[in-house]
Amino acid sequence: MLIVGALMKANVKIVTDEVKPALNTVTVSSYKLGDLADNLSVVFIVIGVFIFIVAGLGLFGACCQNRCMLVTYAILVLILFIAKIAAIALWFTMQGEVEDKVKNEMLTSLQTHFTDDSVDTGSEVSRSWNYMFMTLDCCAINKVTSGTNDFDQSPWCTATGKSCKDSSAEVPRTCCVGVVASTYTAATAPCTTGVSGYNTMGCYDALKAEIDSYSTPVIGVGITILVIELLAVIFAFVICKQTGEEVV
């Protein structure tokens, strides 16, 4: 858990100061998505440290044949085991609902706050969306397949004086393939007119793919820990019994 948390903290590229304002317009069970993603790695690290400490308690209890330490250890591990089972069941039960809610709120945020295809002008959230397009190599929320896309209802396309409404722009310059904060201003047609050369993947799918890349190691580590915890509880009581003392 410590290693997984450390790797997520070091490598997850979606949680940057520039991208967080856009993610924080989306809430998951009253938690802002940007803060949740940023703190998830810390949660894994804290859980890893706690498990390490509890394991130390069990080690000393077993070595010293200390019934009190072993029973305390077994109870703590059992609580962890039940909590993980409950968390896994809750996630699989609510996964579809949470994903739909996140996608809808991302779309609402884009169509409410995206005012300019620039990282220098517009609101903080609008600038943040532009950074997200460049960071995740994505565009809009749903996959962009034509000039008719998620931006059509945004202030960028409905307000007078914006490049989408007053010119032939169909996608922001920040959606063009390979652009970064220092080069996006040079992007022109056919990218901005929605013909070619723009990232077609929607940001919801890009965000989900980024998170899913860590799901396999997290699931693998989680299952391994569950098996070890179950065995640990059994062996803790076995050792208690071998000491010749009654386990209450």
TrEMBL record:
The keyword Magnesium does not apply. It is a multi-pass membrane protein. Disulfide bonds join C139-C157. It is found in: Membrane. InterPro entries: Tetraspanin/Peripherin (IPR018499), Tetraspanin_animals (IPR000301). The chain crosses the membrane at residues 40-63, 70-92, 218-240. Pfam families: Tetraspanin. GO terms for cellular component: plasma membrane. Its main location: membrane. The keyword Ribonucleoprotein does not apply. Keywords: Disulfide bond, Membrane, Transmembrane, Transmembrane helix. Belongs to the tetraspanin (TM4SF) family. This is Tetraspanin. It comes from Magallana gigas.
